[in-house]
Design a protein that fits this description.
Blueprint (H helix, E strand, L loop, with lengths): L1 H19 L12 E4 L3 E3 L4 E2 L2 E4 L3 E3 L2 E2 L3 E4 L3 E3 L4 E2 L3 E4 L3 E3 L4 E2 L3 E4 L3 E3 L4 E2 L3 E4 L2 H30 L8
Parallel strand pairs: 1-4, 2-5, 3-6, 4-7, 5-8, 6-9, 7-10, 8-11, 9-12, 10-13, 11-14, 12-15, 13-16
Length: about 170
């Protein structure tokens, strides 16, 4: 069992390393903003290329020249805020204020869209709201992992089964 825990420990450390340095900007555009657990605020007159947030929210009062994505948080585009690309949230909502402008699509999984009538969206607006979608999205990988583990246990038990003596 120690080998199992050792492998699990290395996997956890590797995952934490990847998350910690995902926003470090190795060869990325220096105008990108990536945060884990800390909100992103783009002020008036400020321009950002991409904004990606894990476990936090994004507030846009300036200009995002590409996409805004939030995992486990909301996206708020206030008046005169502009996003040239797509806006996507998983487990959060989108609020488009007065005179907000999104050039691409707005997609929300497990949240709500609040849209001022004066806000413009250049692409499609898709809302898969409600907690049912989040349960489906989160639990589906665990179901497949559980089925895979059950298959492995079944195979191991079948291989270790002792052969019964044949009566003559």
């Amino acid at each position: 069992m120690t080998c199992h825990f050792r492998c699990l420990r290395w996997l956890t450390v590797s995952l934490m390393f990847c998350v910690a340095f995902s926003g470090a900007g190795f060869g990325a555009d220096s105008r990108d903003r990536t945060q884990v657990g800390s909100n992103i605020n783009i002020g008036p007159g400020e321009e950002v290329s991409d904004a990606t947030c894990f476990g936090c929210s994004v507030r846009v009062r300036g200009h995002v020249s590409s996409d805004v994505t939030a995992f486990g948080g909301s996206v708020i585009i206030e008046e005169d805020g502009r996003v040239d690309g797509d806006v996507t949230t998983f487990g959060g909502g989108v609020r488009l204020g007065k005179e907000a402008n999104v050039g691409g699509d707005v997609t929300v999984f497990g949240g709500r869209i609040q849209r001022d009538p004066a806000a413009t969206v250049g692409g499609d607006v898709t809302n898969m709201g409600g907690p049912g979608w989040m349960v489906l999205i989160v639990l589906t990988p665990f179901v497949f992992l559980g089925l895979f583990a059950a298959l492995i246990v079944w195979i191991v038990r079948r291989l270790l089964r002792t052969a019964a003596p044949v009566a003559a």
